[in-house]
Fold these 3 entries.
Entry 1:
Amino acid sequence: MNAPIGMGKTSLTKILTEQLGTKGFYENVDDIPMLNDFYSDGNESRSENSFRLQINFLTYRYHQLQEGIWLQQEKGMKNTIYDSSLGSDALMAYNLYKRGEFDEQAYNLYTDLSQTMLSNVSGHPFAGLPNLYIYLHGDFDLMLQHITSRGRENETTDPSLVDYYKSVWDTYESWNDSEAGTSKVVIDMNKYDFVHSLEDRKHVLKQIYDKLRAIGQLRSDEYTNLLNKLSYMTLADNGDKE
């Protein structure tokens, strides 16, 4: 999964995990307590805490990847789902660097460590990159609405965060416009509300299943079974908005 802050990654991960019968890996904010320090005092606190926070995320994602690889190798589990990734974290770090809130020496060190971690999992079933990126595209105003509606105090108390959020949105949209290194399906969040609309949810899942089948991640019988399962889906098969 890849998308700017608050666009719905966790909700869709929960839905897909249930439908595919696989393992989902989530970003639990309680596991990243320094997020509060990062947001506490605008660009000053971001500059002070950006390196520690990004290293925290880096090791957090890496441990998730290690578990996912183990599940694939030892348990034969297919299509594990991550609500974020090392690649997404790298975009966040790059945005902070562009803003001057991540000094060049620290950014270079972070990048080197991130690339080392990716190369360490290359050659495993994960291959260092996802088999499929699911990108949730939406207007900037929609991103702000989602951030406000989920109600995390550290994300909403400082009005100057709007400028930071806009830079995050720009960075992810630029990635979406240019990324060609792996398979990708783009979900138009301006058009589809897969949390509250059953028909929208079915349409979004069908797009993802079609792509998984096209890249060889679903057999024909698995694909057919998933489409049949859509017929019985209800909104109770839900996840909370990220």
Entry 2:
Amino acid sequence: MQATMPANAATCDRDALEQLNLNFIRSVQESDSRWFEQNLDADFVNSNADGTLSERAAFIAFIARPCPMANLECGDVRVRLLGDAAIIHARTAYLKPGGEPGAGRYTDVYMRRDGRWLCVSAHVTRG
């Protein structure tokens, strides 16, 4: 039987995760690698849209480069709390470098580490 967390604690966690999600997207758009330095777990791995994997350092180096997409937005955000783990699923919309619309989905996995949420894994798809 899974222990339930008090409603106010779950609300605080959900609010924190929603804010992390918004900052993740903002930081991708703004090439804010510093945010990722502070919010990715040491063991972070990203599944890239092309099927490759990026370890933490490679992902942060990639983010530091100017983002080729414009108007990156997220929607259909679903935050799933699972104790000290959380999964965020969402849809993205953006403009490709040529100005045509693009879309995709992502799944980010967070773990509570020493009282704060850190992203341990991300998976990106693009259409």
Entry 3:
Amino acid sequence: MELPCIRYLIRLGRVHPPALWLALCAIPIAGIASEEKLPLWEAGAGIGVASIQDYRGSDQRHTYTVPIPYIVYRGDFLQVDRNKIRGLLFSTEKMSADISVFGTVPVESGENRARSGMPDLDSTLEIGPQLSFFLKQAEPSDYSLTLRLPIRTVQRFDSGFNGNAGTLFTPTLDLEWEPERAWKARVSAIALFADRKYHDYFYGVKPQYATAGRPAYSASGGYSGAQLFTTLSRRFSNIWVGAFLQADSLHGSTVEDSPLLKRKYSLSAGFGVSWVFAESKERVAPSK
């Protein structure tokens, strides 16, 4: 489960509802691989900067500054780090089941040319079950390969929940490199599929919002494009640093002809630093 980092975003000096910094929270934690016992829990805080599109397919972007917590818990049943929460459902040597969580930032249509005159896009919270199949374990090598199959329902919210915005299925192939006491890297190849309701929320144009340059458009469900998500992170004593780079493509998607889709290809990037300021006295064996 990718941590649902529910915080406030600071954008151009104004406070916004949560959701962006979920991207920064997807950066794997840079824990030190060791046979030595580790703290049961660790806590810290830091700050990150990310430049992302207003929405997938937009030709406009914003740069956000966001607080990022550092949380690790190494319990027998519940295990929490920057990459996932494990053990919520079940786990074996070959597969696991947990909860996948992600989200999107709000978009003020008055600040986006393509959506001018249309309703704002709310923040979304995506949550649902995820099956993970361990195709190659990290031990005895430094590499692991995992196939993840998350299905998430999408909820809109502002000050409260505003309704359902559809369903996403995002099969993901994760390649992770975790050498001992060195930089950790992760590359995720993601295919996105969404239902009609999700596509229509982001890319549909109702007749009352149609203009000469923006015809009415009703989306359909299906293929929603692909992403390549890369992260790099490392722990230096009580300082953690991490960065991500995401390449996004909507080429061949079912919403390719939407008048709101202005750019088929894009890059997003971010960087974060956290100070780990507290840890438990109790020590446990590192998780495998």
